[in-house]
Amino acid sequence: MNLSKTISKDQCYHCGTDCASKEVHIEEKIFCCDGCKMVYQVLDANGMDSYYRLASNPGTNMAGAFEVKNEADATRFSYLDDPNTVTRLIDFTNGEVSSITLDIPAIHCASCIWLLENLRKLQRGILGAKVNFMKRKLAITWQNSETTLKDVVALLASIGYEPELNLDTIQNKQSFFSGSQKEWLKLGYAGFAFGNIMLFSFPEYLATAPLGQGFNWVFGGLNLILAIPILLFSGVDYLKSGWAAIRQGKVNLDVPISIGMLALFFRSAVEILFQLGPGYMDSFAGLIFLLLIGRWVQRKTTDHLAFDRDYRSYFPISTTRISQDGKEEHINIDHLKQGDMIYVRNKELIPADALLLDNEALIDYSFVSGEADALTIKKGSMVFAGGRVVGKSTQFVVEKTADAGYLTQLWNDAAFDKKDKEQRVQNFADRISAPFTLVVMGIALVAGGYWTAAADWGKGLEVVTAVLIIACPCALALSAPFTFGSAINVLARNGFYIKNARIFENLSRINTAVFDKTGTLTSMRDSIIKQDLRVELSQKEWSMVYQLAMQSTHPLSAKLGSWLNEQHQKLLLIELTEIEEQTGKGLCAKLGESSVKLGSLSYLREELVANVPAKESKHTAVHLAINGRYAGCFKFSSKVREGMRNLLNELKKDIRLFVLSGDSNRDAAIFSDHFGKDDMHFGKSPQQKLAFIKELQSDGSKVLMVGDGLNDAGALVQSDFGLALTEKVTAFSPASDGIIDAKRLLDLGTFIRFSQKALIVVYLSFGISLTYNIIGISFAVQGLLSPLVSAILMPVSSLTIIAFTTTVVSQLAKRMKI
Amino acid sequence: MEILFLLIAFSLTLALIFLGGFYWAVKNKQYEDSYSPSVRILFDDLDPVSKKDATSTTITSTKNNKEEA
């Protein structure tokens, strides 16, 4: 660890973001924004600058946090004042001391651990804090008389470590530990037994003369005793899985493994008990040990990412209800009832399907339905849970509870049954299991029959078990976990996280890709604005338009404001008067004698503006009137994500591409270069998206779905590989098989090619392990299989596979420069 | 050769002790987080402020929040 860190010139001292200017600074330390500077000041004042010495630029980017703090922070966490909420969240309390486990996705380095575990220095009353880095969790204990949960959470948020608190965290309590202890013990015991059994078997292999009877009993007996827990504890999952498959009339890879295991164990037990030979317990222990290592490789991937999130992780814990006597109170969302009056503030989520009580409201549905523009809703209309209120606070009356809403209905679809998806995945290994098992059984029976005829049934039985033992597909079972496991690690380094090795194969096989539009093909944040003006505007008039646009919280207005600011260098600082806004429609203001109005066409008409065109334009547009005359409009069109066109051209070569959007088809033109006219589908509801994927799959297509919002959740689950796109990997993303950092989406083509090559590596290693099997079987059918041959052949084949797959995958990654 | 029986007993006992140690470590949740302990051990050396100083300079902003709410 480098404790004498040099400050790089143009990176934010706190978060490492490249700074555009050196405006925000303290002495020689530059910050990218006031938020970062403030966190630094807080830590510095408390003598906690070690934070910056443990790792370079360890902080979370706080841009924007500074403004938010002043307005809303006082009320943002006030729902944590409600004792009912607190009781449901905390792990433990005895009245004086309480503790809680919080999910903090921002934890990423040694400095984070240090800062969080020294929280007591920042706030009196915090008794202790412990980080579980692997799971990104923080367990905090505090004294109730000194501080509250709300203060603790507000403190964490203020230093850039805001915990995840949502409907899901309150319904399913966080656990500080992963609960993988049993798996560790299984692996540990198998390793222990393998080592000892091997030692006890050595004398037999090395002895030039037969060992004494006493030794045989001791070694054999100890081997048998050590092996029993391997069968009943360490390896029992394979037996269970194999048996479950057989009962369903299927054969998976665990079936031949189980047959091999049982043959090994019982043949060895019989040999030991009847003093017929030393038995194969070393092969048995080695087999289970290696298999468990394979499972461990598969498991240790991405513990801190959540792939199974549903709408509950998107909804907040509580909302403001207006009680009968008109008072505001916090209520947990899962306690909301039909008829409750609720109060939703700017940028807050509507927690349940509800009717609007105010005259008008502006609702942003982009995340839940894919519609890019906010909608204006009139009094008495239904609004759906998941929409976000834009602008002023609004009152609603609840119609349906949160889990019965229009949006959440989607989660009742059969596609969301997790087990079902796991079973639908038919891997190469599963597919060859049935023929493999049949062939091995066939060989065993034929060879057994031959030897029974040639010698006696004892020899026949010996040959049958020998074939079953040596054909046990240990190496086969290891090739997929190790290949895909290391491929998953390579991709994770590149910002592409895959749920598990089982699902990886689906990515290699896709031949159809379906893209969501809003937020995926187009970037949510920026859009292209074209001005279509009938008159030249003076410098003063431009300034008026800019100032007016900045007055409104309407998303279009805000976008227009920042665009104008970029376009015009010398905007004048002026004070507008008589500013009036009609939510969702438009606004007007005056400067001396001149007036300026911005809004929809109908708004300008209502305001009696002259020369307003009769026809609505096809584009989303904001119209402008100056001094009571129509002056033109600003047209908005979605901007295709940068580099997206290259990616689409690359993918088009061997993958069929579709667009599937919840938005209207006004942007269809900008994608016509890449998608056929019939391959673009607009205005689809989440349910229809799911159905569309199903339809594609019905004629055998393997579908990759790329989406980002809750409206894609159904399609992501139904598809063969659901890929959720996210600007911040730890931020909310709907349930999926993979999560990709938006910055790396452009490399998707490379990633898919890499996955296809990884599949070829699996085929090759299957070939290698089959070769080993054939060699082994050729010994076995001749009745020549000795414990020594088995003890050498089985580990060697498995180790070859492990070495082969991991080196080839890392070479591949190097060659493809990922 | 009979000495081997004794040696086997010794080696197996030793191995069982190690197995017991492993069991304890797993149950003690040492396999839960393999990263933080490795950095936590370094924290003691870089604590320039004594506990007393630190608690007297708590942040005031969070206190204010509480009063407003």
Short description:
Chain A is of the alpha+beta class and 818 residues long. Chain A is built from 28 helices and 28 strands. By secondary structure, chain B is mainly alpha-helical.
Low-confidence stretches of chain B: 49-69
Strand content of chain B: under 5%
Task: Name the poorly predicted regions of chain A.
Answer: 1-8, 66-71
Number of distinct helices of chain B: 4
Biggest beta sheet summary of chain B: none
Largest interface: A-B, 55 and 42 residues
Q: How many helices of chain A in DSSP terms?
A: 28
The beta-strand count of chain A equals 28
| Tally of separate domains of chain B | 1
How is the main sheet of chain A built? 7 strands, mixed
The helix/strand order of chain B is: HHHH
* Fraction of helical residues of chain A: 40-55%
Instruction: Give the integer mean of the pLDDT values of chain B.
Output: 70
- The fraction of residues in strands of chain A falls at 15-25%
Structure description:
The complex is a heterodimer of chains A (818) and B (69). Chain A is α+β, with helices and mostly antiparallel strands. Chain A has 28 helices and 28 strands. Chain A has a 7-stranded mixed β-sheet, with helices on both faces. A 6-stranded antiparallel β-sheet of chain A has the order 8-7-9-15-10-13, with no helix packed on it. In chain A, α17 (474-493) packs parallel to α28 (787-815). Chain B has 69 residues and is mainly alpha-helical. Chain B has one domain (2-68). Chain B has 4 helices and no strands. The longest helix of chain B is centred in the N-terminal third of the chain and has 25 residues, at 3-27. The N and C termini of chain B lie far apart (83 Å). The model of chain B is unreliable at 49-69 (pLDDT under 50).
Task: Describe the secondary-structure layout.
The complex is a heterodimer of chains A (818) and B (69).
Chain A: E1 25-26, E2 29-30, H1 34-45, H2 51-54, H3 65-76, H4 83-89, E3 92-93, E4 97-103, H5 110-117, E5 126-132, E6 137-143, H6 149-158, H7 167-171, H8 181-206, H9 213-234, H10 236-247, H11 254-273, H12 281-299, E7 318-322, E8 328-332, E9 341-344, E10 354-356, E11 360-364, H13 366-369, E12 375-378, E13 382-383, E14 388-390, E15 394-398, H14 418-424, H15 428-454, H16 457-470, H17 474-493, E16 496-498, H18 501-509, E17 512-515, H19 517-521, E18 522-533, H20 539-549, H21 555-567, E19 577-582, E20 586-591, E21 594-599, H22 601-606, E22 620-626, E23 629-640, H23 644-652, E24 656-660, H24 668-671, E25 680-681, H25 686-698, E26 703-707, H26 713-718, E27 721-726, E28 738-741, H27 748-781, H28 787-815
Parallel strand pairs in A: 17-24, 17-26, 24-25, 26-27, 27-28
Antiparallel strand pairs in A: 1-2, 3-4, 4-6, 5-6, 7-8, 7-9, 9-15, 10-13, 10-15, 11-12, 11-14, 16-28, 18-23, 19-20, 20-21, 21-22, 22-23
Helix pairs in contact in A: 8-9, 8-12, 9-11, 9-12, 10-11, 11-12, 11-16, 12-17, 12-28, 15-16, 16-27, 17-18, 17-27, 17-28, 18-27, 20-21, 27-28
Chain B: H1 3-27, H2 36-43, H3 51-56, H4 61-68
